[in-house]
């Protein structure tokens, strides 16, 4: 007989190229297993067909390892939470189908989770029993990744409003595409971050697109970066090689300045003192430093996730599922994954 006094959620994440499974019990993370897919590196980006095939190979051993590391048997699970979208449909289908089959076999509830909401809710994961560090509602969350750049007003775990977002490319996409132009591998964001630490962030100046409200735009920055390289390579064919670290530092500073300017404006206009950051780009050390400096200057309380919760992971799916479980917010076996959706 299951002990329903302690809610134990198995989370499954398969939205892109990482297969992940995690177990949480009453907000406490017991395991968080991630299988990465290195096959995409040679192509300079994620290949959807290869990603879905790898998920099929990884899903069973990853779930097995998550349960084993957590010391939890399948019979102890209260529910299964899975990423329904947004993401790559082929990848999502693998996780969705597995979650449906396992919930049916165990006769336990199924919980569909919005991938973007899960990133926000990662701040509520407990690392230990005494860990109670999480944002208080309402707070602003800067969600930045390869596919999303958004400012979200978080009123509660199930009441989130996007008040600003990119009108074209995401910040992570700008990092990756500009990195590719200067000869860095995939993903380019971490490489830019690494090289930027040794460069001069004020060496070069790039365009900062002016967009109304709290929305972002990064396509103009990419164009400015490309034309700048083109003009300088005409003068010196070895320009990139000689200036790669300074280029990375200046590019990173420009992207962070764009992100922080709108975040500060939103916080000031709405009078919100608590700020959180989430998504893959929140692992960027330059952005983390900028957030901390911003907090000291304007007396804000900021919440920066552990590196293990910045990328796609199932712990964030499980914690989002946990809060939906409290509301008996379950889904049926007929739900289908979606490639695109807003919060």
The end-to-end distance, rounded to whole angstroms, is 36 Å
Q: How would you name the CATH homologous superfamily of the largest domain?
A: ATPase, nucleotide binding domain
The CATH class of the largest domain turns out to be Alpha Beta
Strand order of the largest sheet: 3-2-1-4-5
Order of helices and strands: EEEHEHEHEEEHHHHEHEH
Q: How would you characterize the overall build of this protein?
A:
The chain contains 9 helices and 10 strands. The chain is an alpha/beta fold and 343 residues long. The protein folds into 2 domains: 8-127 and 309-326, 2-Layer Sandwich (Nucleotidyltransferase, domain 5); 139-305, ATPase, nucleotide binding domain (Nucleotidyltransferase, domain 5, 2-Layer Sandwich), CATH 3.30.420.40. 48% of the residues are buried.
């Amino acid at each position: 007989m299951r002990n329903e006094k302690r809610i134990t959620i198995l989370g499954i994440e398969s939205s892109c190229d990482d297969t992940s499974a995690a177990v949480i019990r009453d907000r406490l993370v017991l395991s968080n297993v991630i299988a990465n897919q290195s096959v995409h590196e040679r192509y300079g980006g994620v290949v959807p067909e290869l990603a879905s095939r790898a998920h099929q190979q990884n899903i069973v051993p990853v779930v097995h390892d998550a349960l084993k590391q957590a010391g939890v048997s399948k019979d102890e699970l209260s529910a299964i939470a899975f990423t329904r979208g947004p993401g790559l449909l082929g990848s999502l289908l693998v996780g969705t189908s597995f979650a449906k089959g396992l919930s049916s076999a165990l006769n336990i509830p199924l919980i569909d989770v919005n991938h973007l909401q899960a990133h926000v809710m990662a701040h509520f994961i407990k690392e230990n029993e005494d860990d109670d560090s999480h944002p208080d509602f309402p707070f602003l969350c800067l969600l930045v990744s390869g596919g999303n750049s958004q400012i979200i007003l978080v009123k509660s775990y199930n009441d989130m409003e996007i008040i600003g977002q990119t009108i074209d490319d995401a910040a992570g996409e700008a990092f990756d595409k500009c990195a590719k132009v200067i000869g860095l591998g995939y993903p380019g964001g971490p490489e830019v971050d690494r090289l930027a630490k040794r460069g001069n962030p004020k060496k070069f100046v790039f365009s900062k697109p002016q967009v109304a409200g709290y929305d972002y735009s990064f396509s103009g920055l990419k164009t400015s970066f490309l034309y700048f390289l083109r003009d300088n390579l005409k003068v010196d064919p070895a320009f990139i090689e000689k200036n790669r670290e300074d280029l990375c530092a200046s590019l990173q500073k420009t992207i962070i300045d764009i992100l922080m300017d709108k975040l500060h404006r939103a916080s000031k206009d709405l009078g919100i003192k608590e700020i959180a950051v989430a998504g893959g780009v929140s692992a960027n050390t330059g952005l983390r430093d900028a957030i901390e400096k911003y907090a000291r200057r304007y007396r804000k309380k900021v919440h920066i996730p552990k590196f293990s919760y910045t990328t796609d992971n199932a712990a964030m799916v499980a914690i989002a599922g946990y809060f939906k479980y409290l509301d008996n917010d379950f889904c049926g076996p007929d739900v289908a994954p979606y490639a695109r959706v807003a919060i």
